[in-house]
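Lab notebook, page 48
Experiment: co-folding of the full assembly
Goal: obtain a model of how the components sit together before planning crosslinking
Operator: M.T.
Materials (sequences as entered):
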Amino acid sequence: MAAAAGRALTEGERAEIQRIANRYNTIIDVVGSRAAGTARNIDTDFPVGKGVGSRSDIDFRIDASHPMVDDLIQALMRVGNGAGNASRKHNTTARPTAPPFIRFAPEG
Amino acid sequence: MLSKKNNHVDQAFLYWRQSQPLEAGRLLFERVPPEDRARWAARILQLVVQRTGIKPPAIAKILLIAGNPNDWGRAHDAFSHAREFTLQLENAGDESAGQKLLLRLSLLAELVAKVIYNASHPVDEFDKDSGWWIAVLLKEILDSVNDEQFSQTMWSALSSEQDAKPSTR
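Observation: model returned without errors.
Model output:
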């Protein structure tokens, strides 16, 4: 795993993702600008987007063969007040996640 | 009778004039054939650079890569350089008109780099809506430049390359 900390995830977002990983007992990878540490305006309540005055979304890769994958996706989409971006297409079983990524594994 | 092409361009123009550029961008980008998207996006960036006279190294690199399809896979690195430049501008907090224009241009360049990279058919493609946002940044740039002739030129560029049917993506 290789990820910068400065512009990655807020503490609240980290806690949300970890809770989801625990609840669904699955590994969740964060990729994209959040993992690269180059995300924009993450500590704001700006709308998610790609323009001026927006904040970066959170791109996830998941195990799309999970028996509750649709619920998992819905839960991830709500992370960061709707900043999450997840789908069956971004699937860790199709190919391993390439760096940089931030991995959340189930705890306990 | 309007053709399918005119129908969706007319609808996009309504969105554009009604300050809904993301909707306009979605309609237009999805009708650009995938094989033409990199060229379409780069042309928009090139025209803005020509009009504004602003061409920092990060943007010059993207335009250089756009010219050679064999290099499109390098657009990911070019995006990263543009993002670094964007973050520098945002951190500087300079609210002058010139710096705001530069920030918008840098964000536009990021999007163009994403579209170019996606055209190389990578496994780790950027968000598919990156191309939609080109219209958003372009509208903001045009509003700040306030040049009617240039606005018409850019609308023509934005609504060009239109296929007669929706993309199958």
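Interpretation: The two ends of chain A are 21 Å apart (CA to CA).
Next step: discuss with group before ordering constructs.
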